[in-house]
Write a structure and sequence with these properties.
single chain; alpha+beta; 6 strands; 198 residues; 6-stranded mixed β-sheet
Length: 198
């Protein structure tokens, strides 16, 4: 069976007659092209929010708003001093004079507020396991903080006062960090004893 060939089609001419072209151009003579609408400028991205700084400032305000008994906390200038109620003032005096041997240290340099809080909690848990009686916590002097305010200094002191095993703390001796560190005296339910330097 033979296939049928499709019928031949005549190509359509798309040429425009000169008279029609002239008529069209005459009709469009007064037409003006509208300018392209301006491309709106892309707004600059907003500045990043200092979320960590805001958290740190909130933590500082919270810590500073905590009411303390005058018997618990003493401040001599910039020195942090703390003595748990019921403890002998001689304990704090001996601690300030460096008569206790430091058994371990925790350095909080470079920590955010939350990191420092977690590091301190873990360190105190370790101190309990090893029954350390005197430790040193380096909080720094705040020289790199905005306004050179020692943020961690107050926060660390506030956190320490919430732990019952913290009997006293005082600014460290110059050789142990001075104003950038605290010597902390710890007492445990069993085998409480003074660990004096030999």
């Amino acid at each position: 069976m033979r296939r049928r060939r499709p019928p031949k089609t005549t190509p359509v001419s798309l040429a425009v007659h000169p008279a029609e072209k002239a008529c069209f151009e005459e009709a469009m003579a007064d037409v003006k092209r509208f300018p392209a609408p301006p491309i709106p400028a892309r707004p600059s991205p907003p500045a990043p929010l200092p979320l960590q700084r805001q958290k740190d400032e909130l933590a500082v305000r919270t810590a500073l708003s905590r009411t303390l008994n005058s018997d618990e906390i003493l401040e001599a200038g910039d020195e942090w001093l703390y003595l748990q109620q019921g403890q002998s003032p001689a304990l704090l005096r001996d601690l300030r004079k460096g008569r206790f041997r430091i058994q371990s240290r925790l350095d909080l340099h470079g920590c955010t507020v939350e990191e420092a809080r977690l590091e301190l909690a873990a360190f105190l848990h370790e101190a309990q396991q090893w029954r350390w009686n005197c430790v040193c916590i380096v909080h720094g002097k705040g020289l790199g903080s905005p306004g050179r305010i020692p943020v961690l200094k107050r926060l660390v002191g506030g956190w320490l006062m919430k732990h019952q095993e913290v009997l006293a703390f005082a600014q460290a001796c110059p050789g142990e960090g001075g104003g950038g560190a605290l010597q902390v005296l710890l007492g445990w339910r069993r085998h409480r004893h003074r660990n004096y330097r030999t």
